[in-house]
């Protein structure tokens, strides 16, 4: 492969990684926050799909895509409130309830989203990071959504907050030891309620990216399981927000590999390259649970480690 083609491939993969990683980024950060409090929320896949639908509907009806993002965050948060409220009841398994919430969120999105499959809604603006190039292809590839940078800022803030703020310390204590939290007089259900609702709202914003940026439409096959992959991503990142950013970029690059190879004329095995994120999920999970690394860094109150 010529050096020019390699350069084009590298830029296309980088640009694709910035686009494809954004939903993973928001859902993984939301799930990281939820699991830091000691609860798992598989329902974030439903929040992602519901966020995509409500963002597109909100943008179409209001004529403002940023209002669509706000609607997506609100609806995702409400789904998290439902999950948190039900999980606060006795004898309720958070994993089983998360599956139910995922199905509920997806079903609501499909039912109410049918009228918005065909209409064209205003999309979010992008930042032109490719102005330095004379190539129209590179300029187009390097149009990056502000949501990506907002996600990076949120990840950095979460890392700082967990280490330097009382709220972050409270979330960590509740997630690591319920007995210690009770001894300190902390309200465990309230902390987990807030963390779950906020995490689900972030997942809703991830869905807004799908419908208002890339691919920039609403349809029932929009998610492709990205919310569930993000749960595995959090395990691989060892429940660290900054590591979630890096892992999201890695998954984004894997998802962008197939289209990037097509830009330089490589078309054989296209469907195999499209499966790269799912294959990567399996590989990383095998690595994550290898002897000596099993659940290292996991909050002690998570149901998967108790």
Please tell me about this protein's structure.
48% of the residues are buried. This protein has helices spanning 3-36, 44-62, 65-87, 94-113, 136-141, 146-164, 166-176, 178-183, 188-212, 226-236, 241-263, 270-274, 276-288; strands at residues 127-128, 143-144. It has a single domain (3-288), classed as ABC transporter involved in vitamin B12 uptake, BtuC (Orthogonal Bundle). The chain is globular. The protein is 70% helix and 1% strand. The model has no long low-confidence stretch (mean pLDDT 87). Helix 1 packs antiparallel against helix 9 (188-212), helix 2 runs antiparallel to helix 3 (65-87) and helix 10 packs parallel to helix 13 (276-288).
Portion in beta strands: under 5%
Mean pLDDT: 87
CATH architecture, please? Orthogonal Bundle
What is the domain tally? 1
Q: Which blocks of ≥5 consecutive residues have pLDDT under 50? A: none
Query: Share of helix among residues?
Result: over 70%
Number of separate helices: 13
Radius of gyration: 19 Å
Global morphology: globular
Short précis:
This protein is mainly alpha-helical and 306 residues long. The protein is built from 13 helices and 2 strands. The protein has a two-stranded antiparallel sheet.
SSE inventory with pairings:
Elements: H1 3-36, H2 44-62, H3 65-87, H4 94-113, E1 127-128, H5 136-141, E2 143-144, H6 146-164, H7 166-176, H8 178-183, H9 188-212, H10 226-236, H11 241-263, H12 270-274, H13 276-288
Antiparallel strand pairs: 1-2
